[in-house]
From TrEMBL:
The keyword S-adenosyl-L-methionine does not apply. Residues 8-123 form the Response regulatory domain. GO terms for biological process: phosphorelay signal transduction system. Residues 440-688 form the EAL domain. This is Two-component system response regulator. Residues 298-431 form the GGDEF domain. SUPFAM superfamilies: CheY-like, EAL domain-like, Nucleotide cyclase, PYP-like sensor domain (PAS domain). It comes from Candidatus Sedimenticola endophacoides.
Length: 691
């Protein structure tokens, strides 16, 4: 009922005349909506079907009298407040009516004066009903809160103004293992675990005192001394003058969530294979270490580690064995460092070590040597004995860089320098490395421009039969017509080109140029095969190998492989060699004698010829030792059914000596310089005329 709605009344009166009189009087008073029924049964039905603010019940009614109606209302929980109307002299009956549930009663007199008393009595009864309902609701709430306090799964405690516990619920007893009596009167410090520092509690109480509440995760201690993660919520209770008088705390067992969150955090911050910190965690710790070093005026060292030739181990033995090796190496690296140091797997076969509180370079030098020494012992995986080695770049804060990104960049440059110097070594960063990196970046852009602007050109140098001096092959040699530096030879640009991943693109261009030459080959010209050099990047692109094999039909094209390419386990592998062999490709090992490839390996390769390195050939006519070496190589090579060629022949004396030692063919300025397109046309035309 609200202030604008009329008061709804249900009137049970069996006398029609009295009923009409009652209805007329109430309508004249105003503010009432009255429903009139003639007996108790109809009255009960109306109460079940509709909602009324008050029921006016006459005692004398057929069927059910007023008392019986009140008792039925109570039994059926019809909660409409009721006012009993009784005949004159029925005061005792009225008392029984109130005991049966009526709020009030009114004695009807014959003169009808009771009708004047009815409106104020109705108002009084409604007020009384609201007070009773409010009191009942409050009692229900108290009962409900008590039930919740006793039965809820979360622990609850209330403290007094001195922050001592005045009440706790059973769940709190179960949570911490104390009896209720052991906690009442105690300060909640009873549960303090010692895990959190004073700063943690200062932040907590600052929030409670300024905001009136705090919520967060806290590690508490049980009665048995064990620790338990708790999700704790603390609120302040105030009196009417808004003074803090009590605190209420709700504690939830957070063990499962804490474990899940810790598991998720570890998954996000640790490498699943090696159990080391991952890149994300390392970067966070690096930023934190730099900030601390700034405050304390100390130094930190960042060591960038890379496993040498790890890819070849994966390729040769498989990723499962590679993973076991990585895990073993990670464990060794971690055991070498201090507790305060961090070792992280940065990705693939790269690791990063973070060393805080560094006082001198020698300290870092010692750690670097220990890390490299940790890999000296072989790793036994099944029937395989594997050995690993490290290259390492080292940068120091604040000497080399002032932030995380720059420090990583410096360590990476130092790592690259270590690898360039032969691997299995460490290198400290210096400003010179940044200068070199800038030069390499400029060179990379120049190479890309050269490829885009067609600044590379091909020359062809004949390979001749030493006996007849007739050409038996043409080797394609690439030159760079640099706009500022002039003509550059491969040794001046090829390392940078390969380092920046342009090797295969250059080879595709060379194949295109050679294809054009073959398509325009004059019928009168002597048909000799062309040969090109493959680089390490070419051997890993099946599309390029397929394109080459299609050109090699009818002995049109030979492929030259540098000796060091065959030595490298990450270079041309058996499956690539077999791919080319099955397609009839003729292979030539170039620069033989510059390394230490064995003759036994030559027996495992497909039919090919050897091209001796210049260092074995130069001035060989005056060097008996090298003559013996070449004779031995030629004899063994011929024994395997292979041909022997020499490169860089510059004199007749060298040519005669090589022929006598068993060399089959040669190339060099004695026979012809490298020829451009026009010069090659003339060379082939003249050769055709001589035939």
């Amino acid at each position: 009922m609200d202030a604008t709605s009329p008061t709804t009344l249900l009137c049970m009166e069996d006398d029609p005349g009295l009923g009409r009189l009652l209805l007329k009087h109430l309508e004249r008073a105003g503010g009432y909506a009255v429903t009139l029924v003639e007996d108790g049964l109809r009255g009960l039905a109306a109460l079940r079907e509709n909602r009324y603010d008050l029921a006016l019940i006459d005692y004398q009614m057929p069927g059910l009298n007023g008392l019986e109606v009140l008792r039925t209302m109570r039994e059926q929980r019809l909660e409409t407040p009721a006012l009993m109307l009784t005949g004159a002299g029925d005061e005792q009956l009225a008392v029984r009516a109130i005991q049966a549930g009526a709020l009030n009663y009114l004695v009807k007199d014959a003169a009808g004066e009771y009708l004047k008393q009815l409106p104020p009595l109705i108002a009084e009864s409604l007020e009384q009903s609201q007070r009773i309902r409010a009191a009942t609701d409050a009692e229900n709430r108290r009962w409900l809160l008590a039930r919740v306090f006793e039965s809820v799964d979360d622990g609850i405690l209330v403290t007094d103004a001195d922050n001592n516990m005045v009440t706790v619920n059973p769940a709190l007893c179960r949570l911490f293992g104390y009896d209720k009596g052991e906690m009442i009167g105690q300060n909640p410090r009873l549960f303090k675990s010692g895990v959190h520092d004073q700063a943690f509690y200062r932040r907590m109480w600052n929030s409670i005192n300024t905001k009136g509440n705090w919520q967060g995760e806290i590690i508490n201690r049980r009665k048995d001394g064990s620790h338990i993660p708790i999700l704790l919520s603390i609120s302040t209770l105030h009196d009417e003058r808004h003074k803090n008088i009590q605190h209420i705390a709700i504690a939830k067992d957070y063990t499962l969530q804490h474990s899940d969150r810790e598991r998720i955090w570890r998954q996000a911050n640790y490498d699943h294979l090696t159990r080391l910190a991952n890149r994300s965690l390392l970067m966070n710790q690096l930023r934190s270490s730099i900030n601390q070093a700034k405050r304390n005026g100390t130094s930190i060292a960042l060591l960038f580690l890379d496993l040498d030739d790890f890819k070849s181990i994966n390729d040769q033995y498989g990723h499962d064995i590679g993973d076991i090796l990585l895990s073993t190496i990670a464990s060794r690296l971690k055991s070498t460092l201090r507790e305060s140091d961090t070792i992280a797997r940065f990705g693939g076969d790269e690791f990063v070590a973070l060393l805080p509180n560094i006082t001198r370079d020698l300290q870092v030098e010692s750690v670097a040597r220990k890390l490299m020494q940790a890999l000296r012992a072989p790793v036994r995986v099944g029937n395989n004995t594997l050995r690993g080695s490290l290259s390492m770049g080292i940068a120091l804060y604040p000497r080399d860089a002032g932030n995380t990104d720059q420090l990583l960049k410096c360590a990476d440059l130092a790592l690259y320098s270590a690898k360039q110097k032969g691997r299995h070594r460490h290198c400290f960063y210096s400003q010179e490395l940044s200068t070199q990196a800038a030069d390499q970046t400029a060179m990379r852009q120049e190479i890309q421009d050269a490829l885009d602007r067609h600044q590379f050109h091909l020359y062809y140098q004949p390979v001749v039969d030493l006996g007849s001096r007739r050409p038996i092959a043409l080797e394609a040699l690439v030159r760079w017509d640099h706009p500022q530096r002039g003509e550059l030879f491969p040794g001046e640009f090829l390392p940078a080109l390969l380092r920046n991943g342009y090797g295969t693109r250059l080879t595709h261009w060379i194949i295109g140029e050679i294809t054009t030459l073959i398509e325009h080959w004059e019928p009168a010209w002597e048909r000799v095969p062309l040969s090109i050099n493959l680089n390490i990047q070419d051997t890993k692109e099946p599309g390029l190998l397929s394109r080459l094999s299609s050109l090699c039909a009818d002995n049109t094209l030979h492929i030259e492989l540098q000796e060091d390419l065959l030595q490298s386990k990450s270079g041309l592998l058996e499956k690539e060699i077999e791919f080319l062999r099955q397609r009839g490709v003729q292979l030539v090992i170039d620069n033989y004698g510059s390394g230490d490839i064995s003759l036994r390996l030559l027996g495992d390769l497909p039919p090919l010829s050897l091209k001796l390195a210049y260092r074995l050939i130069h001035a060989i006519d005056a060097d008996p030792v090298r003559q013996k070496m070449v004779r031995a190589i030629a004899g063994a090579t011929h024994g395997l059914g292979l041909k022997v060629s020499a490169t860089g022949v510059e004199s007749e004396a060298e040519a005669a000596t090589l022929l006598e030692l068993g060399c089959d063919s040669a190339q060099g300025f004695l026979f012809s310089k490298p020829l451009d397109g026009e010069e090659l046309t003339t060379y082939l035309a003249v050769g055709a005329q001589r035939r």
